[in-house]
């Protein structure tokens, strides 16, 4: 029997496109997925909980994690560090569970280099105008940060071609349904590989 490892799914997209909203809705429906809680040096927003939304750390603590090689990937995004805990992701995949990362583009490209078998999904806004409205209406960032995040959004959108799938987030329910379909489709691909492998073994034995 071949060892069944979990699949690593990576969701990226510009700030304000709706990654958090879509991810939360997905987890309401698809409980077998495991979410990897990221580590960040950004300040906590009202309503956020340490250890639920992020593990909130100081710059010093974060840089120690980098030095100790504890991160699968990390990036600086608009003056703050964000990173993925390596041990959690690797151990969870080894146990056969799918893992879901919600990370920005630079980090996703590091994962792609080291983990090309991951499935890379880009969440795309219906328009740049709508993206701006969503960031502004969310009301969690000041004007300077919003301008920086919108600049970053243009760079991020240019990297879209490096992703396996693009999902437009015009409607949350539809976007979640598409991501669920991608997850199922990727499992069917793995099942095909497993079936081919089984057939080869059976042919050898006969
Ligand atoms: N590279 C990397 N990016 C992350 C990680 N966690 C979150 N991010 C991304 O960092 C960016 C900023 O996140 P945040 O400050 O929470 O803002 P928001 O996603 O716009 O609500 C978003 O694109 C996140 O997806 C991580 O572990 N690694
Ligand atoms: N499909 C959608 N239609 C309208 N508004 C949305 C949609 N998806 C998300 N939003 C809203 O856009 C804002 C940004 O969403 P959020 O999930 O915080 O984005 P991100 O995590 O990508 O920065 C939030 O106020 C959210 O309620």
UniProtKB/TrEMBL annotation:
Record: residues binding ATP: 13-20
Enzyme Commission no: 2.7.4.8
InterPro entries the UniProt entry points to: GK/Ca_channel_bsu (IPR008145), Guanylate_kin-like_dom (IPR008144), Guanylate_kinase (IPR017665), Guanylate_kinase_CS (IPR020590), P-loop_NTPase (IPR027417)
First-level EC class: transferase
Residue stretches making up the Guanylate kinase-like domain: 6-184
Classification via PROSITE patterns: GUANYLATE_KINASE_1, GUANYLATE_KINASE_2
PANTHER family the UniProt entry points to: GUANYLATE KINASE (PTHR23117:SF13), GUANYLATE KINASE-RELATED (PTHR23117)
The protein's name: Guanylate kinase
């Amino acid at each position: 029997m071949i060892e069944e490892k979990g699949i690593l799914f990576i969701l990226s997209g510009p700030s304000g496109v709706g990654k958090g909203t879509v991810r939360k809705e997905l987890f309401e429906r698809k409980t077998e997925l495991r979410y990897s809680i990221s580590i960040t040096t950004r300040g906590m927003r009202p309503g956020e909980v340490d250890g639920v939304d992020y593990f909130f750390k100081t710059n010093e603590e974060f840089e120690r994690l980098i030095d100790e090689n504890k991160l699968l990937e990390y990036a600086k995004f608009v003056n703050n560090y964000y990173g993925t805990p390596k041990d959690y992701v690797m151990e969870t995949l080894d146990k056969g569970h799918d893992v879901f990362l919600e990370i920005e583009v630079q980090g996703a490209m590091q994962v792609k280099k080291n983990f090309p078998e991951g499935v890379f999904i880009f969440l795309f806004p219906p328009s740049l105008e709508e993206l701006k409205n969503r960031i502004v209406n969310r009301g969690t960032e000041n004007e300077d940060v919003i301008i920086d995040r919108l600049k970053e959004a243009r760079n991020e959108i240019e990297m879209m071609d490096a992703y396996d799938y693009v999902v437009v987030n015009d409607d949350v329910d539809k976007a979640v349904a598409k991501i669920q379909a991608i997850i199922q489709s990727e499992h069917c691909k793995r099942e095909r590989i497993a079936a081919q492998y089984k057939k080869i073994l059976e042919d050898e034995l006969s």
